[in-house]
Amino acid sequence: MELLQPMQEFWAVQAETFNLLVFLRSYPVGITSLIASNLPLTSPLGTLQSWEIGSAGGVFLAFVVISLIGITLGTLYFIGIAQAAIIGDISWREVFSEWPRSTLQMVILALLWTVLLLLITIPGSFIISLVMLGGSTYGLCAIFIFAGVIFWMILPLVFSPHGIVLYQMGFFESLKVSVNLTRRTLPSTVLFVMAAFLLSKGLDLLWMIEDDTSWLILVGILGHAFVTTGLLASSFVYYRDALHWIREMVKLRELNTI
Questions:
Q1: Fewest CB atoms less than 10 Å from the CB: which of 30, 52, 154, 169?
Q2: In a domain, 25, yes or no
Q3: Is residue 5 part of a domain?
Q4: Is the residue at 102 inside a domain?
Q5: In a domain, 2, yes or no
Q6: What is the mean pLDDT of the chain?
Q7: Nearest in space to 154 (alpha carbons), one of 114, 187, 127, 103
Q8: With a threshold of 0.85, does the pTM exceed it?
Q9: Spatial separation of the C-alpha atoms in residues 169 and 35, rounded to whole Å
Q10: 8 A C-beta contact, residue 242 and residue 185
């Protein structure tokens, strides 16, 4: 029990400083924010006001409501970016007409993602906790291995929202297309995802250099939004081109068998 006490204290501190608004960036879609994952106490305008939720039921209700808002607004954001990236223009009439159907598909897709992550993280966290009893070095190794397992299991699903907003697929069809696309283009997809992740997180370190009380933090917020939007647009272009390449390869193989 004494060995577990530092871990319990660590998670207690994390819970006290956790910002529930981070769930606006729900997965697979959501609203990205540079400062949502932090809990800044000050701003250029002075001290920020915060609200604490003292019950587990209240936390769960806030999680559900904030996640639904994030998925709903995130779907609208994804549809607009997809049109701008592929067509070169945004038709707001089409965006709002597709919004309700796509949002419903995204909610179902988010539930599938949540179930999958829970099936991975719950036993994984238990195993990591046991390994950490042997020392911090073993614990770090276990965390790195666990992160790699999560990456390889989530990678085939990374394009599952794209078929919903780009080609109006159902959630299950879009899921199958994403898995098939990743399997056929694994090297290039891994490079694309890793490059986008490292570019986004690397620049986030740059955007967060300024103190929370500095007005330059607004430059970081705008920079983060610009880079994130650009990376999302490039993912839609990659998705379209990858599907086109797969179709051409299938046609070529069919011709060669004649």
A1: 52
A2: no
A3: no
A4: yes
A5: no
A6: 80
A7: 114
A8: no
A9: 33
A10: yes
Whether the Cβ atoms of residue 169 and residue 163 lie closer than 8 Å to each other: yes
142: domain range?
57-256
Number of domains in the chain: 1
**pLDDT higher than 60, residue 180:** yes
In the structure encoding, which two tokens stand for residue 36, read together? Answer: 């949502």
State yes or no: pLDDT of 95 exceeds 70.
Answer: yes
Tokens of 212: 């929370």
Query: For 64-82, how does the pLDDT look when each residue is reduced to its tens digit (9 = 90+)?
Result: 888 888 899 999 999 999 9
The packing angle between helices 160-167 and 217-256, to 10°, is: 80
The pLDDT of residue 85 is 92
Q: How far is it, in rounded angstroms, from Cα 253 to Cα 19?
A: 52
Query: pLDDT (tens digit, 9 = 90+) per residue, 105-146?
Result: 999 998 888 888 888 888 877 787 777 777 777 777 878 888
Give one DSSP letter per residue of 160-173, joined into a string. HHHHHHHH---HHH
Pick the closest to residue 234 from 153, 151, 162, 154 (CA basis). Answer: 162
